[in-house]
Amino acid sequence: QWQLVESGGALVQPGGSLRLSCAAFGLIFRLYDGGWYRQAPGKQREPVAHITSDNLTSYEDSVKGRFTISRDNAKDLMYLEMNSLKSEDTAVYYCYLRDIGTLSNYWGQGTQVTVSS
Question: CB under 8 Å to 102, separation ≥6 — which residues?
Fold first, then answer.
């Protein structure tokens, strides 16, 4: 049975930093592309960052230069390092893994990030 578990969400002040983690269970992690989406209250879920199985990365424009996605295939972990956080980054952040062959996504349960003074 597969499972993705996010952690690291918290309340942080504007300008602060957080690192989100996504742990994968029951999947051959290194074979999947992955990434993060977020959903703010009253808004649709939107992509944040993506990383391929061979570590090519891409970012949504509003987080470029502030967020960094990475992965550790030896530990079946994916990370989202978030710096210079803004109030508009407040959202539930979801990690996903994508089957390269079928393009099916596997989702975590989400972790809340709140940026507020």
Answer: none
